[in-house]
Design brief:
Blueprint lengths: L6 E2 L2 E2 L71 H7 L23 H26 L8 E4 L3 E4 L2 E4 L2 E4 L5 E5 L3 H4 L5 H17 L2 H8 L2 H21 L8 H11 L11 H12 L19
Parallel strand pairs: 3-7
Antiparallel strand pairs: 1-2, 4-5, 6-7
Helix pairs in contact: 1-5, 2-4, 4-6, 6-8, 7-8
Organism: Tessaracoccus defluvii
Protein name: Neutral zinc metallopeptidase
Length: 303
């Protein structure tokens, strides 16, 4: 997955108790003293231990897709900045939102042609937008569907200018998502490829709605803040994949996800192979967008 993030001004393309012992003492007894004979200790007859109960099978935590292998994810650091722009990024209202269940999405499928891509991408985007409408309304964000476009070749002319990328999000005029022919580079060998790209780009739309594009521009964090934005969008996208009811998570499918995440061409903006694998898989195990807060971790966790 290779994406491009372009920032022009505020326009962005894109876890004893103690016991007392007492002594009883008899005084003045007339009873004859009888010597106490201490017998040698007798080794007790061993009592066979009962068979231990078999260890319970690991269970996927409630709310996560059945079939995900058990995994523990470290807790993310708390927000630590009082700068207004950083506060928008570290304390976004998005982090209190549960990832909605995605129902009626197309089943995972390889996309080998532009016709396949158009069919799968438009259906996946319709499913995503319908699922997010109640959450957007609860936050006071726009619930209007954003348009989805497809283009041949390596680039496309958008309200954000000419952009060369496999896929992109343009925040101008309420937002739009574009899927290019180069999306097929990944979607033709990974059946979750279209879902990956759709979720990532819609993740950028969520960020834009929450004012995070503007805030990221204001902190002027260079490539590092761009990576925080991109890795968060990937985490958001995989959180959506984790709540997508159109497929079952098999060991084979799960095993194919990390190699796909690591197949990225590192460009300094979208994150290293290790970072993409970490934040993508972390998203897959997340039921809340708060688990995707890339803005409170150290820079080496978003390299």
């Amino acid at each position: 997955m290779t994406l491009l993030l372009i920032v022009v001004g505020a326009i962005v393309v894109i876890a004893g108790a103690s016991f007392l012992s007492g002594t009883l003492e008899f005084l003045g007894s007339r009873t004859p003293v009888v010597p106490v004979v201490t017998e040698p200790p007798v080794e007790p007859t061993p009592v066979p231990e009962p068979d231990p109960d078999p260890a319970p099978e690991p269970q996927t935590p409630a709310g996560l897709k059945p079939g995900l292998p058990p995994a523990q994810w470290p807790e993310l650091p708390a927000p630590d900045s009082s700068d207004p722009s950083w506060m928008i990024l570290q304390q976004s209202p998005l982090y209190g939102v549960d990832v909605p269940t995605l129902e009626g999405c197309p089943a995972p499928e390889l996309a080998g042609s532009m016709d396949d891509l158009e069919r799968l991408a438009t259906a996946q985007m319709a499913c995503i937008q319908a699922a997010w409408e109640p959450a957007l309304a609860s936050l006071g964000f726009s619930t209007a569907d954003i348009p989805v476009y497809l283009y041949s070749g390596s680039g496309v002319d958008t309200p954000c200018g000419w952009v060369e990328a496999p896929a992109l999000y343009c925040s101008v005029q309420g937002g739009a998502i574009y899927f290019g022919e180069e999306t097929l580079d990944g979607a033709s060998w990974q059946e979750l490829g279209v879902k990956d790209m759709a979720g990532h780009e819609y993740g950028h739309h969520l960020q834009a709605q929450a004012g995070m594009f503007q805030a990221e521009w204001e902190i002027d964090g260079g490539n590092e803040s761009a990576r925080r934005l991109e890795l968060q969008a990937s985490c958001f996208g995989y959180a959506m994949i984790g709540q997508d009811t159109s497929y079952e998570m098999t060991p084979e499918l799960f095993g194919s996800i990390e190699p796909y995440l690591r197949a990225v061409i590192e460009d300094g903006i979208h994150g290293s192979k290790d970072s993409l694998a970490y934040w993508g898989l972390r998203g897959l195990y997340s039921t809340s967008l708060g688990n995707c807060n890339t803005w409170t971790v150290s820079g080496d966790e978003v390299d």
